[in-house]
Amino acid sequence: MQPTIVDVPTPDGTADAYLLRPDSGGPFPGVLLFMDAFGLRPRLAEMAATIADRGYVVLVPNLFHRAGPAAPVDTSALADESRRLELFGRLGPLMAALTPDAVARDTAAYLDFLAAQPDVAPGPAAITGYCMGGTNALRAIEAHPDRIAAVAAFHAGHVVSDAPDSPHRGVGAVTGELYFGHADQDASMTAEQIATLEQALDAAGVTYRSEVYRGARHGYTQADTPMYDEQATERHWAALFDLLDRTFPG
User: Catalytic residues, which ones?
Assistant: First the structure.
């Protein structure tokens, strides 16, 4: 299944995106896939196709659209420390530009675009997010609890920080269900930070599951990176489809 390249209008410019849909039938629930820092590329199109094959219309927006259309990223740089530092030196400002307000504005536009598709069923959508995409998916449901029924965040980083606007501080707004598939020994989401997140979710009465994938590194779902873990990725698919199929029965 090949993605259709679409342009999504947002308040801050046009976001290029992949759109994938089942071959026939419908209407189908809408799912947003929030990318990791390495952007739109074949791996994300492949993952979106897997979701679409299960009966969902999937939109994968370029979250870095303020910097222009998606540009290729050489993920082989992750295996070399100096090249990795240079890569994240370039990506860092793009990630920092995704403030809570920016994520809220963008998400509203993505949801509007999905809802306008003729084969998308009315009602709330869901989001699956990876690395920074998982963190921003949590921000998205906090901003739009009435429009997002569920979020799955895999190897999400920096969900907990000391900042006043740390994502974990906003979970009281969430009315849908959350799933977190944490990477093991992840410096961007430590065991202590996971415990803080879970305490915040419990205090807010949020329906959630939070699991650590033992032995899996940050980025474990991304087959085009050195962090890929096949077993953890299969576990992620099972968890994701369990959440989606319960959220959108039938």
Answer: 131, 186, 218
Pick the closest to residue 237 from 203, 202, 214, 213 (CA basis): 213
- Per the structure, the complete domain to which residue 47 belongs is given by 4-247
Interval 45-59: pLDDT, tens: 999 999 999 999 999
Q: Is 223 helix (H, G, I), strand (E, B) or coil?
A: coil
Q: Whole-angstrom Cα distance, residue 142 to residue 16?
A: 24
Nearest to 152 by CA among 172, 171, 127: 127
* Total domains, the chain: 1
Q: What is the rounded CA–CA span in Å between residue 159 and residue 181? A: 12
SS3 at position 164: coil
Which amino acid is residue 112, in one-letter code? Answer: D
Amino acid at site 167: P
Instruction: Please check whether residue 29 is in contact with residue 56, taking contact to mean a CB–CB distance below 8 angstroms.
Output: yes
Residue 174, domain CATH: 3.40.50.1820
Contact 178, 150 (CB under 8 A): yes
Secondary structure (3-state) at 117: coil
- Full-model pTM: 0.95
pLDDT tens for 86-116 read 877 888 899 999 999 999 999 999 999 999 9
